[in-house]
């Protein structure tokens, strides 16, 4: 088996046994010969197959001396003479000198000689990204994203955050700073650090505000979480698993995903969250969820996982962020007054409706928002602003999403009759 090449070492041994003798045509693949002059020799009608393979030269008459005429092999290689050696050397030197001069001139004059590799001082490729690209968005937002470390008796907890004012206010999750002494270390995108003080926190909305004394900060740009649609592209930024300045990409997977969360013995938190499949892990908490225009639309807060209790949870493509419209309102109240107001409907909820779904009101506060709108104890809330109610968590989480004073439509059932009303939500009395 060969690769199709009938190779012979120049000046090597003769043909192998059974092959043609040296000097004879070499057979090629399929029985043909390797020389193009012999490919059709056997089919040549002018060839006498019985003629001897020799050339007969008539004998020449001997010269007067009686010695035979000398015979010279025309194919025998001859040694070059001195004139040939000198001539070849001269031509080679002239060509080499001309080529070297041409290359030197081209380099000195900035010719078209190709340059391999990047030159010192060349602009990085990232600077060529379009501002609306994901790389452009990340480059613009990352300087405003920070890592937050809080030391406590139980150890050091770590989360993320983002700058919201030039005066040094930073937003993060309440559960990032909840176990600390009110102090934190803030690590910035450029590697520098600053001491931070907790201005205020709201455990139920899971929002906290930290302040650092530092100039030259770049606040993020806020988006509108109410304008999001399922399928919109988003980026999650922060420090998952202590990997600072991390960016992951995904889409908005769902909106107003209601859930209840909290640690044993701690506050109960309610979320009407933005669901995303962007990779989010421990350490991402408090970092921004950013839309395709580089605007913050949410605060990354929780993840879903399939691990058992006590095991470390990881990303499985189910992450949840607090809508920025809610987070921004809570942040402004914390900065302005040191605390945030909690939005209520003026009723407590119990189990679900016996038939037809919905959640039942166990008690309605006199003169509260629900009572003022005509609702009574025992009514079953079916929808709030078009969102179906299937669990008591749904009603609480959605009410907390709105600001006090917001007007929402409520569809409810009393007995067999369905009714609609408008409820003006209020702030709690705390």
Protein model, in words:
The chain has 430 residues and is an alpha+beta fold. Among the domains are: 135-212, Trypsin-like serine proteases (Thrombin, subunit H, Beta Barrel), CATH 2.40.10; 221-305 and 313-337, Thrombin, subunit H (Beta Barrel), CATH 2.40.10; 343-427, Roll (Pdz3 Domain). Helix content is 16%, strand content 30%. The chain contains 6 helices and 21 strands. It has helices at 82-108, 134-141, 174-177, 324-337, 369-372, 392-401, and strands at 145-152, 155-163, 169-172, 183-187, 193-202, 207-212, 221-222, 233-238, 246-261, 269-276, 288-291, 295-303, 319-323, 343-344, 347-352, 359-364, 380-384, 387-388, 407-414, 417-424, 426-427. Strands 1-2-3-6-5-4 form a 6-stranded antiparallel beta barrel. It has a 6-stranded antiparallel barrel with strand order 8-9-10-13-12-11. The termini are far apart. The model is unreliable at 1-41 and 43-57 (pLDDT under 50).
Question: What is the secondary structure topology, with strand pairs?
Answer:
Layout: H1 82-108, H2 134-141, E1 145-152, E2 155-163, E3 169-172, H3 174-177, E4 183-187, E5 193-202, E6 207-212, E7 221-222, E8 233-238, E9 246-261, E10 269-276, E11 288-291, E12 295-303, E13 319-323, H4 324-337, E14 343-344, E15 347-352, E16 359-364, H5 369-372, E17 380-384, E18 387-388, H6 392-401, E19 407-414, E20 417-424, E21 426-427
Parallel strand pairs: 7-12
Antiparallel strand pairs: 1-2, 1-4, 2-3, 3-6, 4-5, 5-6, 8-9, 8-11, 9-10, 10-13, 11-12, 12-13, 14-21, 15-16, 16-17, 17-18, 17-19, 19-20
């Amino acid at each position: 088996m060969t690769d199709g090449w009938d190779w012979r070492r120049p000046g090597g041994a003769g043909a192998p046994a059974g092959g043609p003798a040296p000097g004879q045509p070499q057979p090629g693949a399929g029985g043909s010969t390797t020389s193009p002059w012999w490919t059709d020799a056997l089919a040549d009608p002018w060839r006498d197959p019985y003629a001897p393979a020799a050339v007969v030269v008539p004998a020449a008459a001997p010269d007067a001396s009686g010695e035979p005429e000398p015979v010279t092999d025309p194919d025998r290689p001859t040694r070059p003479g001195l004139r040939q050696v000198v001539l070849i050397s001269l031509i080679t030197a002239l060509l080499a000198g001309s080529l070297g001069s041409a290359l030197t001139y081209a380099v000195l004059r900035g010719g078209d000689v190709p340059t391999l590799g990047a030159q010192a001082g060349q602009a990085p490729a990232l600077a060529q990204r379009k501002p609306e690209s994901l790389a452009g968005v990340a480059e613009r937002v990352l300087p405003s994203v920070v890592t937050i470390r809080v030391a406590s008796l139980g150890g050091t907890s770590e989360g993320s955050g983002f700058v919201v004012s030039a005066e040094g206010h930073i937003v993060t999750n309440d559960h990032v700073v909840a176990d600390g002494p009110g102090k934190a270390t803030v690590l910035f995108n450029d590697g520098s650090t600053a001491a931070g003080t907790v201005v205020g926190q709201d455990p139920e909305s899971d929002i906290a505000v930290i302040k650092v004394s530092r100039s030259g900060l770049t606040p993020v740009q806020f988006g509108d979480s109410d304008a999001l649609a399922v399928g919109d592209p988003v980026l999650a930024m922060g420090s998952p698993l202590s990997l600072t300045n991390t960016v992951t990409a995904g889409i908005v997977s769902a909106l107003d995903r209601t859930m209840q969360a909290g640690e044993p013995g701690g506050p109960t938190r309610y979320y009407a969250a933005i669901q995303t499949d962007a990779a989010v892990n421990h350490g991402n908490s408090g970092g921004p969820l950013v839309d395709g225009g580089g605007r913050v639309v949410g605060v990354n807060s929780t993840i879903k996982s399939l691990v058992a209790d006590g095991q470390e949870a990881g990303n499985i493509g189910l992450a949840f962020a607090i809508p920025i419209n809610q987070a921004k309102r809570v942040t402004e109240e914390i900065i302005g007054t040191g605390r945030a107001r909690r939005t209520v409907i003026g009723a407590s909820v119990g189990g679900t409706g016996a038939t037809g779904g919905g959640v039942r009101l166990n008690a309605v506060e006199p003169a509260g928002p629900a009572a003022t709108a005509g609702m009574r104890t025992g009514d079953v809330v079916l929808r709030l602003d078009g969102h179906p109610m299937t669990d008591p968590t749904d009603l609480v989480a959605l009410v907390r999403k709105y600001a006090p004073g917001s007007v929402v439509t409520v569809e409810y059932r009393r007995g067999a009759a369905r009714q609609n009303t408008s409820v003006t939500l209020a702030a709690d009395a705390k």
